[in-house]
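Hi everyone,

Forwarding the result from last night's run.
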Amino acid sequence: MFSFDSLLVIGYIHKVESAVTTPDTIDLSSRVRSELQESERVPVDYTSLFDPTLFKFDLMNIPPMLNLFRQMSLPHQILALVPPEFEVPLPSAKFAVFPPQ
């Protein structure tokens, strides 16, 4: 059987001194303040808001990369599919019944 002191040591019972006071929510709810800000005007041409330099699909880097393959004497091959190897975490199943005697 546990004593009261052992429960305090384990941490199941908190001391009264560790109580945390909460703010007076009733008083705070009567003094609600909004934090809305004025927003900027949206331009008529909304496409001016997009920045095309953030993402760019470009094929200009492929020829220099192919030249690197030639300079490093590496064969340029299409990537092959690597078949997955699944690990079996459990031993093989065995029946849980006994044969007749």
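The radius of gyration is 35 Å.

Cheers,
N.
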